[in-house]
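Figure 2 data, in text form.
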Amino acid sequence: MTVEAPAYPVQFEVDDVAPQGRLSILFRWLLVIPHVIILSLLGIAVGIVIMLAWFAIVFAGRFPEALVRFTIGYARWAARANAYGSLLTGAYPPFSMDEEPDYPVRLLVPERTTGRGRLTTFFRCLLLIPHEIVLYFLGIVAMFVGFAAWLAGVVLGRVPGGLHNFLVGYTRWTERASAYAYLLVDDYPPFSFE
């Protein structure tokens, strides 16, 4: 009898490879700039929220509801913008913190406010170190894969499946590690592209 492990609570879903406009791919770095600017400013607020949430979880065992919603919204928006910039989709991302079920990239994060792990929250920065080391080296590989995907996309009008799958897996891993860093989940993220 085979027992399957439960799925990790943070899911990063991307629709299958689809053709994209060559011109859009060529200037993708420029098209994503408005999202980068807004997300950078929101990132300052999220940093403050995470710091407040850290204290709330460590001392009260709960992540205040409004703060968790704001953080999840930021994570969703950042995931969509990152996926667009990484050529995982050709659909321009909405300027929204809401769930966008029709958008080809979705970050699903449970909204858990109570019963949070105080001890793992207290040591969260230390617990993230192994992921940061592995993701650093994978990030170097992802830069080269991303450049190859960009070059192939400009020539072919689509990202080849193998490059697309690598970038989806790498992004899935980083989104799960980010959700753990943002204190959105207590489950330790898997060392996996799946």
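Caption note: Residues 33-60 form the longest helix (28 residues).
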